Amino acid sequence: MPQTHHRTNAAPPCSVVAMAEDLTKVYGEGESRVVALAGVSARFLEGEFTAIMGPSGSGKSTFMHCLAGLDTPTSGTARIADTDLGPLDDARLTRLRRERVGFVFQAFNLLPTLTALENITLPSALAGRSPDPEWLRHLVETMGIADRLDHRPAQLSGGQQQRVACARALASRPAVVFADEPTGNLDSRSGAEVLSLLRSSARDLGQTIVMVTHDPVAAAYADRALFLADGRIVHEMPEPTAAGVLDLMKRFDGRTPTP
Q1: Is 97 inside a domain boundary?
Q2: N or C: which end of the chain has fewer CB within 10 A?
Q3: What is the CATH number of the domain that holds 141?
Q4: CA dihedral 107, 108, 114, 119 (to 10 degrees)
């Protein structure tokens, strides 16, 4: 189990890369009405790795989806840098996600007919750009997949596929990378490799990472952990440890943490 993985000599982050202000999300009406978010506010800084945690149904995935422009909040504001996502139409939202946001999903989401390299460069190709060759070379070497670029997903292990997915998320140098349970389908060794890559992306490359996870060990790689319950942020833990996160999670009664 990891002890601590937090930045040591990195310069303190300065600019706000993503922000939520009083986000609410309500599904349905009447007796079927469900409040998924009940006024969530948070800031995510340059070079900061944040874990979003909470019981099932706490709103953590909804929060990430609204912040990333994948879902529309009922009220409140989500921003990427200085851009308010609310007024954007579908075309402008799609363009913003391609240019400013990276995604890493639990299921990898690689296209099976494309090679690793083609998967990595696909978002840039869809945006009509070519990735910086020096940056791309640095990424694949950092990810340890330089000798796997001509392989298709079926020829790669789960850990290698997720490293390709991480490289794809970082290739366009997005403002922020959202990771939704990125180690959920991996064994412990592969999961540790991916988490180390995300951590080093924040610490060494200045990348902002926002990761939804239920795993205390995964949260221990982050610089801080935000805990949601009943659609609200109920606790923030700087420099989380697996033991500290697990202890707090044990005090959840499924809705709110006990003192």
Answers
A1: yes
A2: C
A3: 3.40.50.300
A4: 150
* CA distances from residue 57 to 16, 66, 233, 254 in whole angstroms, order as listed: 28, 15, 13, 9
Rounded Cα gap, residues 253 and 100, in angstroms: 37
To the nearest 10°, report the CA torsion of 115, 194, 192, 112.
-30
Q: Is residue 257 part of a domain?
A: no
The sheet carrying 16-27 orders its strands as 34-45, 16-27, 75-80, 83-84
Q: How far apart are CA 180 and CA 66, in angstroms?
A: 13
Say how many domains are in the chain.
1
- List phi, psi (to 5°) of 21: -125, 110
Q: How many CA atoms lie within 13 A of 254 on its CB side?
A: 0
The per-residue pLDDT for range 120-137, each reduced to its tens digit, is 999 888 878 888 888 899
Residue 109: how many other CB atoms lie within 10 Å: 13
The pair of three-digit structure tokens given for residue 15, joined into one six-digit string: 């600019």
Inform me whether the pLDDT recorded for 173 exceeds 50. yes
Cα 218 to Cα 209: distance, rounded to the nearest angstrom: 13
Pick the more confident residue, 99 or 118.
118
